[in-house]
Amino acid sequence: MSIRLIQSLWRDCEGSEFIEAAILLPVVLVLFYGVFEFSWYFYNQQLAMTGVRDAARYLARASTSETTNPCTDSSLVRNAQNLAATGTISNGGGPRVKGWTYQVVSITCPAYINNVGTIYQGGATIYRITVSTSFADPALGLFRSLGIIGTLDISVSHSERHIGPG
Q1: Range of the domain at 44
Q2: Is the Cα torsion angle 136, 137, 142, 146 positive or negative in sign?
């Protein structure tokens, strides 16, 4: 009797769509949310890249002299850090990316070109302004909750030539 019941259930097609949906739904949801998670990561990375580029351009033009190192003016450096992280030079703006603060924005201005013979317009030394940052991605948490990926970091950098006041 039980063999006939098993054979009849095996041949019965009613409810097969429900079983297929129950099997495929978790896979489709993980794929859908995975695409959403990666697009969120790339969006935040683009916001960070825009911020460090804006800060480097600001510092390249904001200094008062084309002959002095722009990193020696601490107020300009702080303004550039705020510009990178918040989009404004004041302290009042909210972060471009959740969890990104001006404290993790690094700015260096090493001597780039010895311009003693004035080959290029500007002072005797031309500086290269490099703004970089690295911070934990404020991910949506799908992959972390599934144990697929640990913490991802957003790391971006941008360099500009110091050109002095505009």
Answers
A1: 14-161
A2: negative
Q: Whole-model pTM?
A: 0.77
Asked whether the beta carbons of 160 and 57 are under 8 A apart, the reply is yes
Distance CA 77, CA 80 (A): 5
157: three-class secondary structure by DSSP: strand
Residue 100, amino acid: W
Query: CA 125, CA 117: separation in Å to the nearest integer?
Result: 10
Query: What is the DSSP annotation of 99-156?
Result: T--GGGEEEE--EEEE-TT--SSS-SEEEEEEEEEEEE----SHHHHHTS----EEEE
pLDDT digits (tens, 9 = 90+) for 40-88: 889 999 999 999 999 999 998 887 777 788 888 899 999 999 999 999 9
92-95-97 Cα angle (round to 5): 175
Within a domain: 3: no
The answer to whether position 2 is within a domain reads no
